[in-house]
Design a protein that fits this description.
Chain lengths: 176, 595
């Protein structure tokens, strides 16, 4: 599998509701790809999260046994890196950049507006599982600050007053 | 038939997010529609650097520089410029209405720049190895493999005087030499592309615009130090750079420039990509190595240094992207040529990401020794919206601020450290009078606290204490003794923290306390935020003589805190107001003000 593939956020919705043990054969396939890789745990976790949308406890236990790495170490790694999530996330992940350039150009106000508009705090998912709100640490698009990433789309020069409008296509399922 | 024109479309992340891909596709289809497809080559390049003006399209040989192009402009560009040979004036970069600024050489933004690292960004298609080769790509590797011994290579780097561009500025030749001298049959070469400093994107643009230069340099290091395996550790936030690296690696293997028996020399070297998982501390080299090994990215005490005992305990050369990008040029043109650029202390050039309240945001590469004034005012065009320059922050969460009085300091590693800041990786964030120094400092501390790995207590506990003190001050609860407390905690963290993150985390506080003590005192003694940023210390009000009672602000207010009938003076209820600033942004008559 190309490394870039393990990044995309195109999580199959159905997988959210799958019985965790049904996904073990898929995890086996992932592990097989990294059989000869030193330090395989992180790539395996990245690919698994890409497959399932998050990392359920059962999957982590399975990975722990398959890689012969203690469960405590696996969860240690999972909780250390901010990209890993052990709870299901929303259909759309909104990441508001709070890099310095975005911060001085009003990123904090943008974040507060999203939070108010969606009724969730950073790290939370809306009740209808449509949106998760996260902060980003610089997407490297500082010339376009403040920047918001919704899934893979970069929105530039976002203003608090335009946020309701920005969310409409995602709410209606018409996003690009 | 010879080609009449080359159209270069910027394919950096900034321009891509603003529609560059649609522009590229529309240009292709328009050229076909208008029957000139055979006479034109359309190339998607890496970042041009002038991100403020994106998306950018450049047409050769006229060297016409089109800015803020929209997908629907493709038709006119083709019909006018390509078919009729007339420049499309309305899209040309033109800062002064009186003077026509059409060509790249006429644009102030580029005039003081000198490009080594970004030599190919904006010139070649990064997804085509032939274009890299056509610009002397892989010539340095060939020279090294067939004409130079490992000692020759190290000597050339020594003459060049190249220092690591990741922040610390350690001489690169020494690192390489340490690894070369250790006897071990397994050694590694690592590229640190975990560019986590918020507000810095030099490495991303280099990887997106010129990925082969990194592969070439790492292979040279492999040959020099006796390593056959390399890793590129890159942030997962950079999908485009990852994609282009993968394409480049595939092409290099196909051409026999990566893999076994490179160019028939008998030397073999290959590279693997590893993705970061969102931890800033992994930019620290020992933490990065721990992360490649599949562990929590926590720093390890040095010595032993990675050059001697690195990845899986083996000798490892680790450099950052910008350092790598310099290597092929140095070896081709010679260390002596390189050593003539820059200052006594620092040789060569430095790439900066110029952002914040600057008119021309973008990537700039200048010789070491260029002054901040030249970068900010000549290249960057000064402050946007006619506001007053307040300070520039360099070195990110590890650095400090530089004020107006020091704008004429020539920049190199030594001079910035002397001013209480640091070179860092190259983020340069310009602040104007509307930015509160205490608030921005709190932002940096918040970042360091979030990203502290928690292994050593000076960083884990000290950082949190500093943040809490700043938070107290920005809320109007600060006391005079807090200033001494911050200095004391900061000094302890610098001394006792395990790695660079903790040792440098207090820098933003210590630097701003030195240059902007008055602003701290205004928050503590007068309970006032002079820049009008700290929410607990400000209130939003409406000017009676400017408000026309249009109700625009009242309709936008998310908490219905604005009272007033149509055509009558509005009033903001301070008990309901959450100080979100939407009314200020909405009012077209300048009637809302912050006190």
């Amino acid at each position: 599998m190309a490394v870039a593939d393990s990044l995309s956020n195109n999580t199959a919705d159905a997988n959210h509701e799958m019985n965790p043990s049904d996904t073990f054969p898929m995890i086996d396939t992932i592990i097989e790809q990294y059989r000869d890789t030193g330090g395989a745990l992180i790539p395996v976790l990245q690919s698994t999260q890409n497959l399932l949308g998050y990392l359920p406890k059962e999957s982590l236990q399975y990975i722990s046994r398959a890689l012969k790495i203690p469960y405590s170490e696996v969860t240690g790694v999972v909780t250390f890196y901010s990209f890993f999530s052990t709870v299901p996330r929303g259909k759309h992940v909104i990441r508001v950049c709070l890099g310095t350039a975005c911060y001085v150009r009003g990123g904090k106000d943008v974040l507060e507006t999203f939070s108010r508009e969606l009724g969730i705090k950073v790290g939370e998912t809306s009740e209808d599982r449509q949106f998760s709100l996260e902060i980003g640490r610089c997407f490297g698009a500082c010339g376009l600050a403040p920047v918001v990433m919704i899934d893979e789309d970069v929105h530039q020069r976002v203003k608090p007053t335009k946020i309701r409008e920005l969310l409409v296509p995602y709410r209606n399922g018409e996003e690009s | 038939m010879a080609l009449r024109n080359y159209i270069l479309v910027c394919g950096g992340t900034g321009c891509e997010s603003a529609g560059a891909d649609s522009i590229y596709k529309n240009l292709i289809s328009e050229c076909e529609l208008q029957g000139v497809a055979d006479e034109v080559q359309i190339i998607k390049t890496g970042c041009f650097g002038f991100c403020e003006q994106g998306p950018i399209v450049k047409i050769l040989p006229e060297d016409s520089f089109y800015v803020q192009v929209k997908p629907e402009d493709a038709k006119e560009l083709v019909s006018e410029h390509i078919v009729k040979g007339r420049e499309v004036a309305r899209l040309l970069y033109n800062k002064n209405e009186s003077k026509k600024h059409a060509k790249v050489e006429d644009i102030e933004f580029y005039q003081k720049q000198f490009r080594i690292v970004l030599r190919n960004c904006g010139f070649i298609n990064p997804e085509n190895i032939d274009e890299y080769v056509a610009r002397e790509g892989y010539a340095a590797l060939e020279k090294v493999l067939f004409e130079m011994t490992p000692d020759d290579v190290i000597n050339e780097l020594k003459v060049a005087g190249l220092r690591g561009r990741g922040g610390a500025g350690f001489p690169s030749w020494m690192k390489w030499n340490f690894t070369k001298q250790v006897e071990d049959d397994v050694k590694y070469v690592v590229c640190n592309a975990d560019e986590g400093d918020p507000g810095a994107y030099m490495d991303r643009s280099t990887l997106e615009g010129d990925p082969h230069s990194i592969l070439e340099a790492m292979t040279i290091a492999g040959y020099t130090c006796g390593a056959s395996k390399g890793y590129i550790y890159i942030r997962a936030e950079y999908p485009l750079a990852i994609k282009r690296l993968e394409i480049a690696m595939g092409q290099a293997r196909e051409y026999g420039l990566l893999g076994e028996d490179i160019l028939g020399s008998g030397f073999g070297f290959d590279i693997e990509i590893r993705l970061g998982a969102g931890a800033f501390v992994c930019g620290e080299e020992t933490a990065l190595l721990a992360s490649i090994e599949g562990e929590r990215g926590m720093p390890r005490p040095r010595p032993p240094f990675p050059a001697v005992k690195g990845l899986w305990g083996r000798p490892t050369v680790i450099n950052n992207v910008e350092t790598w990008a310099n290597i092929p040029v140095i070896l081709l043109k010679g260390g002596e040529w390189f050593s003539k650029i820059g200052t006594d202390d620092s040789k060569g050039t430095k790439v900066f990401a110029l952002t914040g309240k600057i008119r021309n945001s973008g990537l700039v590469e200048v010789p070491m020794g260029t002054t901040l004034r030249e970068i900010i005012f000549d290249i960057g065009g000064g402050i946007a919206n006619g506001r007053e320059f307040k300070a520039v922050q360099t070195g990110g969460p590890s650095g400090g601020v530089i004020t107006k009085e020091h704008l004429d300091t020539p920049i190199d590693y030594g001079s910035l450290t002397g001013l209480g800041s640091m070179m860092g990786s190259g983020g340069m964030i310009v602040m104007d009078e509307d930015d509160c120094i205490v608030d921005v400092t709190k932002f940096y501390l918040g970042f360091s606290v979030d990203e502290s790995c928690g292994k050593c207590s000076p960083c884990r506990i000290g950082g949190r204490s500093l943040y809490n003190l700043l938070d107290k001050i920005t809320k109007g609860d600060g006391e005079m003794e807090d200033i001494d407390k911050m200095k004391e905690i900061g000094a302890a963290m610098k001394k006792a923290s395990l790695c660079g993150l903790g040792q440098t985390a207090p820098n933003p506080i210590l630097s701003t306390l030195h240059y902007f003590e008055k602003e701290y005192l205004a928050h503590i003694k007068d309970k006032r935020c002079p820049a009008g940023k700290c929410k607990e210390l400000i209130s939003y009000n409406i000017l009676a003589d400017k408000c026309i009672g249009c109700t625009a602000c009242a309709r936008k207010c998310p908490v219905d805190a604005i009272i007033g009938e149509r055509r009558q003076l509005h009033r903001i209820d301070p008990d309901l107001c959450i100080k979100c600033g939407v009314c200020l942004e909405t009012c077209k008559f300048g009637a809302v003000f912050v006190r």
